[in-house]
Specification:
With 84 residues, the chain is of the alpha/beta class. Helices cover 29% and strands 11% of the residues. The chain is built from 2 helices and 3 strands; from the N terminus they run βαβαβ. It is globular, with a radius of gyration of 14 Å.
Length: 84
């Protein structure tokens, strides 16, 4: 039996039924968030909770593609601007 580990993203700020089903059956190691997934701090907290609950792992890693400069998924007014 082989072990595979992968991270996955989702299409928006909340899980769809199809995403919840896929995540539950394929059990990714973790998740990555992009701008399309981020609206407010409270919404991000809920999305992270949904993602982790879908795989029954409250400590699953959740990464954000945040490079600074032009590539900032977290930004004003809720988060600071980071230099490039």
């Amino acid at each position: 039996m082989s072990t595979r580990a992968f991270i996955t993203g989702v299409s928006g700020p909340a899980l769809t039924a199809a995403e919840r089903e896929f995540i539950g059956s394929e059990r990714p190691w973790g998740f990555i968030l992009f701008k399309r997934n981020i609206e407010t701090p409270a919404q991000v907290i809920l999305l992270v909770r949904e993602l982790r609950e879908a795989i029954s792992n409250p400590e699953a890693p959740v990464l954000i593609d945040q490079e600074g400069g032009r590539v900032q998924r977290l930004g004003p007014p809720h988060w600071p601007v980071y230099p490039p």
